[in-house]
Amino acid sequence: MTATISHRATNLVAHSYDDFPVTAGQLDLRGDNSPPLSAEFTRPIALPTAEAATYGDIRGELRLRTVLAELFGVDRDQVVVTAGGSEALWLALTCVTDHGDAIRMPRPAFPGFEQQARLLGLRVLPYGAAAAVPRRGTMPVLICTPHNPTGLLTHPDGAGRSGGWVIWDLSHMTTSGTGLAEFTTGFGAQDIAVFSLSKMLRLPGARVGCLIGADPALLDAVVRAKTHVAMSTSCLAQDLALRVLADPAARHELTVRTTLFAEHRAQLLAAVDASSTLRAVAAADGTHLYVEAVDGADAWQRLAVRGVVGIPGPVFHGTSREVRLCIAQPQQVIDDAAARVRAP
Ligand SMILES: Cc1ncc(COP(=O)(O)O)c(C=O)c1O
C-alpha cells in the first residue's frame, strides 16, 4: 500500500516573494519595506518567565485584550488573541461553516482566503472585489476592507445589517485614529472581525492578530477550536504586541506613516493615470494598488521590464493582465517607480 499526501494538501498553492525575484536595478514593490514602527524594538524583550511557564489564557493575555478591545470599541470578553490574522481567519471559517458548505469570497483577494477554504472543504462562490459586496444571507460572506490587493473600502452597512454571518477582514486597517471602533459600531451577533498586527503595525514576525465577535456561542466555539489548534498565543509575542500598541511614540509614527502612504498612493495612482498602457483600481486605503495592462498584456512583465517588481495578479486569483504594487516604500523608491510607471 502506498502512502499518499491528501488531495487537499496536494492542491494547495503557496507562494513566497522569492518566486518573483528582484534583480539589480529593479525596484521592489512586492511588499511592505518600511521599518518597524517603534523604539520599543530597541529594548530587549523582557522575558515574562512566569507567564512562559504556563499556557496562559486561551483567549489571550488580559492586558492585550483590554487594549485591543479599546481599539475596536468592544468589550474585552469579545476579543480572542490569535497567532496572526491567519489563525483568526481559520477560527472564524471553522466556527461558521461545515465541510461542503458554500461561502462568498472576493476575487482577486489575499490568497489565504481561498486556500484556507479549500483546506476546510468549502465551496467558494467568488464575487468581484470591485463589484458591490453580496448581501448577507444563508451563506457566510467574507469581506476584506481595506481590500488586499485593490485598496477598495466597504462600508459596514455594505452587506446589510441582519441575516447570516459576515467575516470582516480588517487586517489592513490602521490602528491610528478611531476607524476600527467606528467600523464595529452596530456590529450584530453575526458579525466577526479578524485583524492582524502584521500589516500597518509591522509585526509580521510576532504572529499576533485577533478575532472579535459579539455572539457568546461563537466566542465559546472559537476558544474550543483554538484549544486544539494552537492552545494559547505566544506570551512573548503578546508582550511585544502590547508594548508596541501602548507606546505613544509608535502611535505617533503610525499616524505619520498612514498620512505618508496616502501621499504615495496618490502619487502612484497619478503615474498610472498618466501612462497610456496601464490603469489602476481607485484605491482608497491600505498599502496596495492593483494595476491592469489596458491592452490585456502581462502587467507584471510590463512593469518588471521597466524595473518595477510587484506580485502578479494570478497569485490573488486575478489574471495575468493585473499586478499588485505595494506603496509602503521609502520616498525615493516611490519617486523612481512613479517615473518608470509614467514612462511611455
Ligand atoms: C487581508 C489579509 N488577511 C489576513 C492576512 C494574514 O495575516 P497574518 O500575516 O497576520 O497571518 C493577510 C496577510 O497578508 C492579509 O493581507
Q: SSE order in H/E notation?
A: HEHHEHEHEEEHEEHHHEEHEEEH
* Percent of sequence in beta strands: 15-25%
Bound molecules: pyridoxal-5'-phosphate
Question: Into which percent range does the helicity of residues fall?
Answer: 25-40%
Number of domains: 2
Number-wise, the strands total 13
Secondary-structure-based class equals alpha/beta
Over the alpha carbons, how many angstroms does the gyration radius reach? 20 Å
- Enter the CATH topology name of the largest domain: Aspartate Aminotransferase, domain 2
**Model regions low in confidence, pLDDT < 50 over at least 5 residues:** none
The major β-sheet equals: 5 strands, mixed
Strand order of the largest sheet: 2-8-7-6-5
The backbone outline, from C-alpha atoms, is: globular
CATH class of the largest domain: Alpha Beta
**What's the end-to-end separation, in Å?**
60 Å
Fourth-tier CATH superfamily name of the largest domain: Type I PLP-dependent aspartate aminotransferase-like (Major domain)
Q: What's the mean pLDDT score?
A: 95
